[in-house]
Amino acid sequence: MEMEKEKLLESKSILMKLANGINPLNNEPINDHSFLHDPQIIRPLFYLSDYISKQLEVKKIPPRKPATFHITDEQLKQVTLPLGKIGINDFSKAINVVIDPTISKKLTGTMINKKLKAIGILSEEVDGNGHRVKVKNDK
């Protein structure tokens, strides 16, 4: 990131020297008969210099959020669960307090329920209203 900024600044400096009729290699004036004095060349050089300036000012897009959940043993030791009976979402919130959001996706109750269903600890039933609900099973 820093290297890209340096390259852009260097490029802008070169463009500005050319646009102002200065040889960027030796800082001497460019020959009056050079094509670099033509307004059709100078205008785009100033335009590119302004464009680079704007790009340097633009806030960079933050890196993508992590796609998977990850918790270290150290972070797991730091988890503090609320006292009493808690739901799956309260459990998720307690976990999310200790994870690093730049490395791990936040944990959700839905993620936990899907995993518990996949390993056979939760089952799905249809309730009296025809809705599918997850229930504990014998496992």
Question: How would you summarize this macromolecular structure in one to three sentences?
Answer:
By secondary structure, this protein is mainly alpha-helical. The protein is built from five helices and two strands, in the order αααααββ.
SSE inventory with pairings:
Blueprint: H1 2-19, H2 39-57, H3 73-78, H4 88-98, H5 109-118, E1 122-126, E2 132-136
Antiparallel strand pairs: 1-2
Helix pairs in contact: 1-2, 4-5
Primary descriptors:
two-stranded antiparallel ribbon; rod-shaped; mainly alpha; 139 residues
DSSP helix count?
5
Q: The biggest beta sheet, please?
A: 2 strands, antiparallel
Unreliable stretches (pLDDT < 50, length at least 5) are none
Helix content: 40-55%
Our Rg estimate from Cα atoms comes to 30 Å
Order of helices and strands: HHHHHEE
Query: Which class best fits the helix and strand makeup?
Result: mainly alpha
How much strand content do the residues show? 5-15%
What multimeric state do the chains show?
single chain
The first-to-last residue Cα distance is 51 Å
Strand order of the largest sheet: 1-2
Mean pLDDT: 88
Q: Can you tell me the overall shape?
A: rod-shaped
What would you note in describing this structure?
The chain has 139 residues and is mainly alpha-helical. 46% of the residues lie in helices and 7% in strands. It has five helices and two strands. Strands 1-2 form a two-stranded antiparallel sheet. Strand 1 (122-126) and strand 2 (132-136) form a beta hairpin. The longest helix has 19 residues, at 39-57. It is rod-shaped, with a radius of gyration of 30 Å. The mean pLDDT is 88.
